[in-house]
Amino acid sequence: MYGEIALFSGNGNLELAQEISAALAVPLCPADVFKFSNQNIFCRLKTSVRGKDVFIIQPIAMSYDRRGAMQTVNDNLMELLIMIDTAKRDSAGRITAVVPYYGYGRTDKKDQPRVPITARLVADLITTAGANRFLTIDLHAGQIQGFFNIPVDEITAFYSIRDYIREKNIPNAVVVAGDIGATKRSRNFAQALDLPLVVIEKRRLQKPDGSKTEVLNIIGDVRGKNCIIYDDEIDTAGTVVQAMDFLKQCGAEDIYTCVTHAILSGPAVQRLIEAPVKEVVATNTVAISPDKDFAKLTRLSVAPLIAEVIRRVHLGISVGELFDE
Question: What's the pLDDT at 69?
Answer without folding.
Answer: 83
